[in-house]
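FAQ: What does the model actually see?

It sees only this:
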Amino acid sequence: MSEILTRSPFGALPSLVIQAAIYQAFYGFLRPTIKTDNVSVGSYIVRSLLDGFEGPQGYSQRFGLHYVDFGNSNRQRTPKKSAYLFNSIIENNGFTKRKSVKPKASSISWPPARKLAPLPASNVPSNAKVVWEKLSGQTAFERDMYQYATFSDDFKWGVSTSAYQVEGGWNADGKGPSTWDMFTKIPGNIENNNTGDIACDSYHQLDADLYMLKSLGVNSYRFSISWSRIFPTGQGTPSDKGVEYYNNLIDGLVANGISPMVTLFHFDLPQALEDLGGWEVDAVLNAFHNYADFCFKTFGDRVKFWMTFNQPHSIVTAGYGLGLFPPSVTEPGSAPYRVAHNLLKVHARVYHTYDENYRASQGGVISLSLNTEWVEPKDYTLQRDIEAADRYLQFALGWFAHPIFKNGDYPEAMKWQVGNKSALQGLPTSRLPVFTEEEKAYIQGTADVFSINIYTTKIVQHKTLRLTPASFENDIDIEASVNTNWPTTAVSIHRAVAWGTRRLLNWVKEEYGDVAIYITENGVATNSNPDYEDNARIFFYKTYIDEALKGLF
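And it is asked to produce this:
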């Protein structure tokens, strides 16, 4: 559910051949980022542990290392060959036959929290354009050259899931409905009218999930908490059964030497809070803060890595602009900007609560998971295409990262674009809200690490788009495309382009300084047909991981 997904065929090759190949490619491209470019990459988290519910596409796409038989009432799980590959990479800590000693959860070290110093606003285009100058001129041979090396012994290897995608038990033990519970019950919203009512049934199969995690050999597991399982109406009295489930999960992880990485919000707002007005009203923002505070107090003695939001860009664009995610608002010119403004402010509030009340005793770190595609200028020697590529990244990533990791405010490119379009539309003020100086100071520095979800690459060029209707998409003034020679996946907008990973990680370093970067989600989808060989996914992971490793040293 990380993107607005549409299904497409793999082409001539069998889907598992493609998938294994694609995973191989991703691993391969991660390594150069670490080894060659001196980028601080601390984790690689695979999406996902097992096949699950994939948003509007239902169960028609499979991201898992384990095949789930959704036609079987027991939701039988079977490892794909990519699971064995990932286990081998973890055991060797990379791509050489070297025995590594994996740390137990009690000894896994997260980077020490440090207040990030303010950075000046980004230029237009950003100085990070040096990444295109440095790497876009590579020959295909130079770009794709495979390297054999290993990661540092404290590298975090993990897999991910999210509550609605795997838990099921949608109304079990007093759980309240979430927006996704209600959204999926409207005919036509989801392919084949699928729902996550049962999903993988992880709520009732905790031991099976823990067994898979232990067998993989991961030292980290990223999952989300279902807010309405803890607080059925989003606030008030917590559910003992809901708390018990997450305590059992966390205790099971720690007992098996696996460090929990917890996302507080992964798209599933309690429906009772949406009925109050959702992310646009103070009552819901206050409820989120109180829910986060409860989680810190209840689970923080064992959870040392927290993320407030998963992909806030997707929350605001898919939920409030395009209407493809709940709450299905289609107000693309202003609602995404208003809601993003609120998310940034409540994220900062939650960060400060953890920092002031829990960090000293619990010793954890807190961030949020951002996302973007890498983008290549159509002509990297043409200034307007360089500016278009930079503008894309500022709208996709800088929208949330620039306030937190730079100066507490939106990128200059974004402020100018939205402000100029608003003026041309005859509006008295910009559709992009304004932070007060006090709010800027409060938001700046409210993340301990840079968490990012990475999938694919696009090609962009400048194009002046229409003024009406007002839209966050039209505000950017770019045209995006892909190279048709890039391998396809079951997600039509996700071409498998491993080398984009290295370039994106380099751009983050150049743009936001020497902050520790954690890849909190990466994966590839195949179609719904059973395919245990999983060769395409294997290729994907090998090449993507190798590309990240190129930049470590």
